[in-house]
Amino acid sequence: MFRSSILRLLVLLPVQALRWDAEHVGYNLNENQDAVEPTDYWGEWKNHTYHPSPKNWRFPFYVATMDRFVDGDPTNNEANGTVFEHNWMTNQARFGGDVKGLQNNLDYIQGIGIKGIYLTGSPFINMPWSGDGYGPLDLTLLDRHHGDIEDWRALVTEIHRRDMYVILDNTMATMGNLLSFEGYVNASTPFSWQEHNFLWKGERRYHDFAPGNDFNASCEYPRMWGQDGYPVGPEILSLQNGCKNSEYDQYGDIKGTGAYPAYQSQLSNFASVQDRLREWRSDVFDKIKVMSCIQIAMFDIDGFRMDKALQTTPDKLAEFSTWQRQCARNHGKENFLMVGEIVGDPKLASVYVGRGKEPNMVESNVTKALMATNMTNSSAYIREFGMGALDGAAFHYDIYGAMTRFLG
């Protein structure tokens, strides 16, 4: 039953959203049966007392990739019924780890002094063989390999009962691998400000976001900064003349490794396998922010770790973080954590942390820097008070690189 329904679910036309469907009750976070548009989606943990945030997040974390941890429920290993879906003997297929396996081993995690658990990868449906979770095909439908809504809630409840906290990965603007570009179906696509026409790779479709090939001459680009931490200059701004009328960026691909101009990284598909949502387009952003808020309301999570944070445009990430913090406050969480993966020059990273700073905004007086408060002159920051992007880094490549040099 599930195999046929999920195939039908992913073959619908892209303009049709994944509205409420009785077949997906227990896995679809959208519980609003009357939802017409994705911005109407909603779900909430009824008759539940939400766990408050910690006053201070400085404590040990444990990082777990759900599929690679412990297989607590073997019955969900073949959830999609596809070939090569599950094989615990290889690292190229799913191992079988799930929510129940993690819950059954909380004694061990707590016993080594852990207070926070960060679960890597999106909890939502991926390709059957993609166990890492970084290519979601939908942002409200859970991956059945990990468990259903009640399984997730049981895990979070037990984590909170132990006075521990849980952070989920949030891909925000990166999705699966359903789109290709005309002329480059089997090759990496070079970057182009004119953008490329898209082609579907197969019959699968996204439901809540639609690509497009028509040209929009009135397209307004977001503010962008370079790796040097300063706004891009006229040599880049002069190239921003319109864009495709698409909810996805169609500028091309970047490799999984290597250095690129920041604007290219923010507009390109990562490693040629992750379709990129145009989060800087307001109607796209409105859908993304609601879908992430639903995760807080449905699961009582304590924070997000933003995957590929520096591939998101800075102002939209700040707006997103502000929205999620308010969503969390609405559920009794006053210190919701927003951290992110930082891969880029430290000068560019400073644009993303807090209200953001450019190099010429650095306070040279150490005492004044340490004594800065929320009342500090706003001219010393890129964004106004209340518009903080990241609280800090979670997987900072400069630190990672230093550790590998030191530890081998």
Radius of gyration, CA atoms, in whole angstroms = 21 Å
Spans of 5+ residues with little confidence (pLDDT < 50)? 1-17
| Residues in β-strands, percent | 5-15%
Number of strands: 12
Q: State the end-to-end distance.
A: 49 Å
Q: What's the shape?
A: globular
Q: Tally the helices.
A: 11
Order of strands, main sheet, comes to 1-2-3-10-11-12
Q: Largest beta sheet, briefly?
A: 6 strands, parallel
The chain-level structural class is alpha/beta
Arithmetic mean pLDDT: 91
Order of helices and strands: HEHHEHEEEEHEEHEHEHEHHEH
Percent range of helical residues = 10-25%
What does this structure look like?
The protein is an alpha/beta fold and 408 residues long. It has 11 helices and 12 strands. The chain has helices at residues 2-9, 99-103, 106-111, 149-161, 234-237, 262-267, 282-299, 314-329, 346-352, 366-370, 397-407; strands at 61-65, 116-120, 165-170, 179-181, 198-200, 215-216, 243-244, 253-254, 269-270, 303-306, 337-342, 392-396. The strands form 4 sheets. The chain has a 6-stranded parallel beta sheet with strand order 1-2-3-10-11-12. A two-stranded antiparallel ribbon has the order 4-5. A two-stranded antiparallel sheet has the order 6-7. Strand 8 (253-254), helix 6 (262-267) and strand 9 (269-270) form a beta-alpha-beta unit. Helix 7 runs parallel beside helix 8 (314-329).
What's this, in brief?
The protein contains 11 helices and 12 strands. By secondary structure, the protein is of the alpha/beta class.
